[in-house]
TrEMBL record:
Active-site residue numbers: Y53
NADP-dependent oxidoreductase domain: residues covered: 20-298
SUPFAM superfamilies linked to this entry: NAD(P)-linked oxidoreductase (SSF51430)
Name assigned to this protein: NADP-dependent oxidoreductase domain-containing protein
Keywords: NADP, Oxidoreductase
Gene Ontology molecular functions: oxidoreductase activity
Annotated positions binding substrate: H115
Family, similarity comment: Belongs to the aldo/keto reductase family.
PROSITE patterns linked: ALDOKETO_REDUCTASE_1, ALDOKETO_REDUCTASE_2
InterPro entries: AKR (IPR020471), Aldo/ket_reductase_CS (IPR018170), NAD(P)_OxRdtase_dom_sf (IPR036812), NADP_OxRdtase_dom (IPR023210)
Site (Lowers pKa of active site Tyr): K82
Pfam families xrefs: Aldo_ket_red (PF00248)
Residues annotated as transmembrane: none
Species assigned in the record: Littorina saxatilis
Length: 323
């Protein structure tokens, strides 16, 4: 068997981050209480959630039980969450982060990311997806520099260890990076073999920002309203089947390994016990250069999450430029 490969990265601020995260988008409170213990027992030590996922309280309950029973210590688990777009006003940032801390039952968060660069109107009633009478999203254009400075204050207070962004393009990364006293260390974006984000990765690396990949398998479990007729299906690509057969691995394991091998934090999400275990078994092999090149040829720049209906009209919509 091949030598065990790197399963943590060291961020520029010194924090160690597990390469593979257990993703929790679309996993309800009851379901997360069922599957998160499976993930923790399998060996996942990085949990990726968000204020808007509606499962922070359930995750907090599971973690609290593990800590109380001495199954794990707080320092053993890297918890990442995201500041929702209704909290981007400088005076609302604290409320959003402290609410996540309360729900997760934690004294500090390992990583907080701005969920997206566009803002939603804060109705002050808990509405996460504000719509007007015509069904259009109620957008707000917040000053992201002010948002960042408010997040930095929470780092100073010890409530947050590291800061990052999500769904930011290169211009938006620099907007924050130029003014940051606490620089962003992660940019979480859609990233997979169809959309490898090589240019954005190279750009971010020069600024000490590591990419984190969501939808690494092409998000086969995303809701129907996000699926377009005729879309390519990443997991069905024959080249992945062939490479998997070579290593005794599945196409999913090949895709996950290809990203981590590129130095990308990778978010693996499943609610199926066998796949939770399978997705974690990617640290006992290394893809050969010719296999990485073959995977690279799958690039077609297809984006499964355009967010166009949600934010296409916003001045900070990130996908109007190449990267």
């Amino acid at each position: 068997m091949a030598e065990k490969v790197e399963d943590t990265f060291t961020l520029p601020d010194g924090q160690k981050i597990p390469v593979l995260a257990f993703g929790t988008w679309q996993v309800s409170g009851d379901k997360i209480k069922e599957v998160l213990p499976l993930a923790l027992d399998t060996g996942y030590r990085h949990i990726d959630t968000a204020y808007s996922y509606g499962n922070e309280e359930a995750i907090g309950d599971v973690l609290h039980d593990y800590f109380a029973q001495d199954k794990l210590k707080r320092a053993d688990v890297f918890v990442a969450t995201k500041l929702w777009m209704t909290f981007l006003a400088k005076d609302d940032v604290r409320q959003g982060v402290e609410e996540s801390l309360r729900r997760l039952r934690l004294d500090y968060l390992d990583l907080v990311m701005i969920h997206a660069p566009w803002g939603f109107k804060n109705r002050r009633d808990g509405t996460l997806f504000p719509l007007d009478n015509h069904g259009n999203f109620e957008l707000e254009n917040y000053d992201l520099i002010d948002t960042w400075k408010a997040l930095e204050q929470l780092v100073t207070e010890g409530k947050v260890r590291s800061l990052g962004v999500s769904n930011f393009n290169s211009v938006q990364v620099d907007l924050v990076n130029f003014v940051a006293k606490v620089p962003p260390v992660v940019n979480q974006v859609e990233c997979h073999a169809y959309l490898p984000q090589k240019e954005l990765q190279e750009f971010c690396a020069k600024r000490g920002v590591r990419l984190s990949a969501f939808a690494p398998l092409g998000s086969p479990g995303r809701p129907e309203h996000l699926i377009t007729d005729g879309e390519p299906v990443l997991l069905q690509e024959s080249v992945l089947q062939a490479i998997g057969a070579k290593y005794g691995k599945t196409p999913a394991q090949v895709l996950l390994r290809s990203l981590t091998q590129r130095g990308i934090i990778t978010i693996s999400k499943s609610i199926t016990p066998s796949r939770i275990k399978e997705n974690f078994e990617i640290f006992d092999f290394t893809l050969a250069a010719e296999d990485m090149m073959a995977i690279g040829k799958l690039r077609n720049n297809h984006r499964f999450f355009t967010f166009h209906k949600m934010a296409g009209a916003h001045p900070q919509y990130p996908f109007n430029i190449a990267f």
